[in-house]
Each structure stands twice: as C-alpha cells, then as structure tokens.
Amino acid sequence: MRKAARAAVMTVIAGVLLSGCSGGDGERAEPKASAGTAEQRPSASPSGGGIIERATGAWKSIGAAKSADGLQTLTVTAGGKVVAKGDKLDCTGTLKPGEKSGEDAPTLTLSCEGGNDGGRGVGTVGMKGDDALVIDWAGPKGGWGGPVDSFRRTAS
C-alpha cells in the first residue's frame, strides 16, 4: 500500500516538474508518438527542422521564482552556441544533436561562472511547438537528477 501511494505521489511531482511550472497557462504536454506513428514526432514543427534549428533565438524563463542559481534568459545562435544568464550566473555552452527514445533530443553542455550552477552542466533540450523550450538537466552523478528549466520565446 505504501509503495502504491509513494508511486502516485512521485508521478504527480514528476508531472508538475515536467509541465514547466508555468503558472497555470492551461497548456498540457503533448503525448509521445507511438511506434506506429514514428513519422509524426511531437518535436517536429510544421515547417520542418530539428530542435537545434527551431531553438535559435532569444528565450526568457517562465519560472516565477528567482533564485541565485536560476537562469533568467537563454540565447541560442544558428550554430548551436548558447549563452544563458541569471541573477548571478553567466553561462556559455553548445547544443549538440542527439536522440532519446528515437526522437530528436539534443544535448546542451553548459559552463557557468558567478556561483553555484544549481546542478546544471549537461541537459537534454526539448520543445513544444516553436515557442516553448525545456531543459532537463542530468544533475550530479549518483543523484536524483537536476533542475528543469522552462523558457518562452521572447518577441524580437
């Protein structure tokens, strides 16, 4: 009974974290493509192009709480170079192509100065449509994982 309750609680927590804690904008995560619909990937935009190409541009964190180790902005250049900034952090990195469960899932390797990076270093980048980006950080070795950062595209 305890195992079932614990599993239910962990599922709810994971759902909240993966939703990006966006403050209740009413959006839901898209379901994963089944094996029979491999051509219709949620990461593919109607205009085509992979996540690295679609991620190019300026992004702002949708997290309401500011913390010393949080990222507030993210900029991705056409070559996959990344600059991320927070209240105290100044980070640079590179997006590299990758796959996870057969879907486009590039890896971001980030190096930060200015304080504790909050468990960032290597993360997997995902997108919902062309205006929502999420980074699921691996966190320290032997740990439970790292933070999840969610961003919205900024107006140009």
Q: What general outline do the C-alpha atoms trace?
A: globular
| Number of H/I helices | 2
The portion of residues forming beta strands comes to 25-35%
**Helix-and-strand structural type:** alpha+beta
State mean pLDDT (0 to 100 scale): 76
Low-pLDDT ranges: 21-48
Radius of gyration: 16 Å
Question: How many strands, what sense, and barrel or not for the largest sheet?
Answer: 8 strands, antiparallel, barrel
Instruction: Return the string of H and E elements.
Output: HHEEEEEEEEEE
Reconstruct the topology from this structure.
Elements: H1 2-18, H2 51-55, E1 57-61, E2 73-76, E3 81-85, E4 90-96, E5 99-100, E6 103-104, E7 107-113, E8 122-128, E9 132-137, E10 148-153
Structure, explained:
- This protein is 14% helix and 33% strand.
- The protein has helices spanning 2-18, 51-55, and strands spanning 57-61, 73-76, 81-85, 90-96, 99-100, 103-104, 107-113, 122-128, 132-137, 148-153.
- The strands form 2 sheets. Strands 1-2-3-4-7-8-9-10 form an 8-stranded antiparallel barrel. It has a two-stranded antiparallel ribbon with strand order 5-6.
- The radius of gyration is 16 Å and the shape is globular.
- The termini are far apart.
- Residues 21-48 have low confidence and may be disordered.
